[in-house]
Specification:
The complex is a heterodimer of chains A (196) and B (594).
Chain A lengths: L1 E7 L4 H14 L5 E3 L10 E7 L16 E4 L17 E5 L6 H4 L8 H11 L2 E5 L1 H5 L8 H9 L7 H11 L2 H21 L3
Parallel strand pairs in A: 1-4, 4-5, 5-6
Antiparallel strand pairs in A: 1-3, 2-3
Helix pairs in contact in A: 1-5, 1-6, 5-7, 6-7
Chain B lengths: L12 E5 H12 L3 E4 L7 H13 L2 E4 L3 H13 L4 E6 H6 L1 H10 L5 E7 L13 H7 L2 E3 L4 H18 L3 E6 H4 L1 E6 L16 H4 L3 H24 L4 E3 L4 E6 L1 H13 L3 E6 L1 E2 L3 H10 L2 E5 L5 H9 L3 E3 L14 H7 L24 H11 L4 E3 L25 H10 L6 E6 H17 L5 E6 L28 H7 L4 E5 L4 H13 L4 E6 L14 E2 L7 H6 L4 E4 L2 E4 L9 H5 L5 E2 L7
Parallel strand pairs in B: 2-3, 2-4, 4-5, 5-7, 6-7, 10-11, 10-13, 13-14, 15-16, 16-17, 17-19, 18-19
Antiparallel strand pairs in B: 1-8, 6-12, 9-11, 20-23, 21-22
Helix pairs in contact in B: 1-2, 1-7, 3-5, 11-14, 15-19, 16-17
The chains are: A alpha/beta (196), B alpha/beta (594).
Chain lengths: 196, 594
């Protein structure tokens, strides 16, 4: 499976990617996870590539080969449409983070309708979920990344218990329990929206 | 500090980033000295080693710059220790002087230079290919494609270094450094840190007479080095077909996947070294009709293939592969002849990295503009981000430590305006101080602004000689910046807090009026380190003039209907917006003092 996670620096894109990669390793499955560090972490956009197939030996997902894209911000998947095909499942957090050039009036942030229309041209499998709204009462918007993992768990070919173990192992001790609660909240949202 | 299981036992399979795998490789190879200067994508190697350094009695350091890092490693090697040096690709330029002569003296203990190249320039000012130094220095490079190879090649690199008495470069790229994958551990070794130096003036003292003899000996060793390259087990041929593919590093993985996706039958030569295995290239040439070469960076492999192959070679030289930017599966597929329509890029507002909310660099640029610092030579660090609107705080950015030299040159060129230079604390120690001494000595008339936030921030908050701590967290002497600047002969030195805007403007005005070099040290901790009580201003009486947005541009100030608001989650309570609003519309609750 080819998974791409995108968002804005500070949203926990790297933690989510690392945690998912760790879950695959716990089951001794092949996994590669390419990240970007450095400048992009200062409020810039982030994109990670997670590859879990035997024959996926290269770090980057090829164009149109993404099976699952999750974005912690509404606009960001539009930057990564080259990765998408009709078969890609795209899960988007219903959260706008306005880039500074937009605040300065140098660029325009598209309307929610335009963003969803645009993404709809690339994939038939678009889901918009308010992960941040679910995260805030649990301890803060930063937990949206772990809520996302819970939401996605049933669609990722790895045991849920492996993801949970990876979360616990990768979290600082004082956040581990909260992260598991956030993960389960994400699973709950998925159960509520998933078609029977 | 990352919590990584690099001390797991032999046989353990651990998910590691390439950089963490290099650190593990160093433990397996029995490194006792590791030095480096932070630089994306290489920084995590030293950061991963540091937490285990004390318990294992390994010396791990952030050096002042890459040149000194390599010289430290050279000394350790002369004293018999295995030494690892880390830096980003442009850091090797700084270390090039010792590097090019180190192959002449040769090494004693193994010495591996782990260099992070950055194809695609994710966090760099150029795309140089570290293999260019190998040709000149007559040494060799190992080029891993994933974290497992990154670890294994460190161990192999030390063996080759000791066998041929040369420093070996481990050429990493962003997609190895920052890709996580499973790494199976080998046995680690815990040698005693007990150096011994055997005097050998003819070898270690590079005066011309000795250098001429040593260089001849280095050249005489080349055939043996080439034979070892041909025999290096990770240089390997696989597959059958009429088409040949030569590729190195992650590009070899992209090439393999591209061949499968296009559905070609091809012989793949994976090259894990530079110079490449010419015997294997010739064998490939004898088995195929046409050859493709895929590599990140410059066409070094391709030039060697062109030299020895009889069949057509397609790559960057021939124009079949784009020279700049990162290699990808899609680029390889296009070169291999798969017809495909390029994906259309949607119009999306840019999301550049920006100075953090509450960052003192924003205040510095704001105050400099008001003090009429009109031409500003920039440098490398977080403060480079001050180039963006609305601050537009710098006019140039070239290389580490360059700002002071550039400002001096502008003055010497007869500029009407007095030039300024901005430079961070770590960059000043790295290579700015030489520029300052030069400016004073040659009587430049410039204002030098040292942004002293007491951390190496951009690369992830590393300690430096000004912070008072070592990489291990141990307390260390901190450089007295003011005394250092005065000792360079600077007569005008003032220290001020950039978050006090009117005070900073007054200091800049005074500094600009000084005839000669003036130095303003702006002292304010990085927001990541600043301990401030949460005190978010309230907006009261905003008349929507937008001066705050259009002149200051703090990400925590957002537009709303009829004015602005403060994003409480982003605000770091610096209180500067209170000072800059012409209408006093930002008010601290309870009349608090920011």
């Amino acid at each position: 499976m080819n998974i791409n996670i995108c968002g804005v620096g500070g949203q926990g894109v790297l933690f989510a990617s690392k945690t998912l990669a760790g879950a695959f390793l716990l089951e001794d499955r092949p996994v590669l996870c390419a990240e970007t560090h450095g400048m992009s972490q200062r409020g810039g956009f982030l994109l990670t590539h997670l590859r879990t197939d035997e024959d996926a030996i290269a770090p980057l997902v090829p164009d149109r080969a993404c099976d699952l894209m999750v974005s912690f911000e509404l606009l960001e998947p539009m930057r990564q449409t080259a990765l998408l095909s009709n078969e890609s499942r795209v899960v988007v957090n219903d959260l706008r983070i306005v880039p500074l050039p937009v605040t300065l009036g140098l660029a325009e942030y598209p309307s929610r309708k335009d963003i969803l229309e645009c993404l709809g041209r690339y994939t038939k499998r678009l889901e918009v979920v308010d992960l941040t709204a679910a995260a805030i009462p649990l301890g803060g918007s930063i937990l949206a990344n772990v809520v996302a993992l819970g939401y996605l768990a049933d669609g990722i070919p790895v045991e849920t218990k492996s993801i949970k173990k990876s979360i616990t192992e990768g979290s600082p001790e004082r956040f581990a329990a909260t992260n598991i609660v956030a993960f389960e909240a994400g699973m709950e949202i998925r159960r509520g929206t998933a078609k029977p | 500090m990352s919590k990584v299981r690099i001390e797991a036992t032999e046989g353990a399979k651990v998910l590691l980033m390439g950089n963490e795998a290099v650190a593990r490789g160093a433990l397996e190879a029995g490194v006792t000295v590791a030095s480096g200067y932070p630089g994306t994508p290489s920084s995590e190697i030293i950061e991963t080693l540091a937490p285990v350094a004390t318990a294992r009695d390994i010396h791990v350091e952030w050096s002042i710059n890459e040149k000194v890092a390599l010289e430290v490693a050279a000394g350790a090697s002369y004293a018999g220790a295995r030494a690892l040096v880390t830096m980003k690709h442009v850091g090797l330029n700084v270390a090039a002087d010792p590097f090019m002569s180190l192959t002449n003296t040769g090494t004693v203990g193994g010495l591996v230079v782990a260099v992070g190249d950055d194809p695609g320039m994710h966090s760099s000012q150029n795309e140089q290919d570290s293999r260019m130094y190998v040709k000149g220095a007559k040494t060799l490079t190992l080029v891993p494609a994933d974290p497992q190879e990154a670890k294994d090649f460190v161990v192999a690199g030390f063996e080759l270094s000791e066998r041929f008495e040369i420093p070996v470069i481990l050429r990493l790229t962003t997609r190895v450094c920052h890709t996580r994958g499973p790494v199976t551990f080998g046995p680690d070794t815990r040698p005693e840190r007990k150096g011994s130096f055997t005097k050998d003036p003819g070898r270690f003292i590079m005066i011309p007479a000795n250098a001429r003899r040593r260089y001849r000996q280095l050249l005489d060793r080349q055939p043996d080095i080439m034979a070892a390259i041909d025999a290096f087990p990770h240089n390997r041929l696989e597959g059958e077909g009429d088409i040949g593919v030569i590729a190195t590093g992650p590009a070899a993985r992209y090439a393999k996947e591209a061949v499968a996706r296009v559905g070609l039958k091809a012989v793949l030569l994976t090259v894990a070294t530079y110079p490449p295995p010419l015997a294997l290239i010739k064998e490939l040439d004898s088995r195929v009709e046409r050859i493709y070469v895929f590599e990140d960076g410059d066409p070094f492999l391709e030039e060697d293939a062109l030299r020895v192959c009889t069949h057509e070679v397609r790559g960057k030289v021939s124009g079949h592969v784009q020279h700049d930017g990162e290699m990808t599966v899609d680029r390889a597929m296009t070169a291999l002849g798969r017809e495909q329509t390029a994906p259309v890029a949607e119009t999306v507002p840019p999301r550049p990295p920006v100075l953090c909310p509450g960052c003192s660099h924003r205040s510095a640029y704001y105050a400099m503009k008001r003090a009429k610092c009109r031409v500003v030579a920039g440098d490398i660090g977080c403060y480079t981000l001050g180039l963006a609107p609305p601050l537009k705080g710098i006019d140039t950015c070239l290389d580490m430590g360059a700002s002071i030299g550039k400002a001096s040159g502008m003055d010497f060129a007869g500029l009407d305006e007095r030039p300024s230079a901005v430079i961070g604390d770590s960059t000043f120690f790295h290579s700015g101080i030489t520029g300052l001494i030069n400016a004073v000595y040659n009587k430049a008339r410039i204002t030098v602004v040292i942004l002293d936030n007491r951390i190496t921030a951009m690369t992830g908050h590393q300690e430096n000689p000004g912070t008072g701590r070592l990489v291990t967290g141990e307390p260390a002497p901190a450089v007295d910046m003011e005394a250092l600047v005065r000792a360079c002969g600077v007569e005008f030195v003032q220290i001020t807090d950039p978050q006090d805007i009117s005070a900073a403007i007054a200091v800049f005005k005074e500094a600009n009026a000084h005839d000669g070099v003036s130095v303003v040290i702006l002292r304010s901790p990085c927001v990541f380190k600043a301990k401030r009580k949460k005190l978010v201003p309230v907006v009261d009486g905003c008349n929507d003039c937008q001066v705050c947005i259009n002149t200051f541009g703090c990400p925590a100030i957002v537009r709303i209907e009829g004015g602005v608001a403060i994003d409480e989650a982003l605000c770091t309570s610096c209180g500067v917006c209170v000072q800059i609003c012409p209408h006093g519309a930002f008010v601290l609750p309870g009349g608090g003092d920011a």
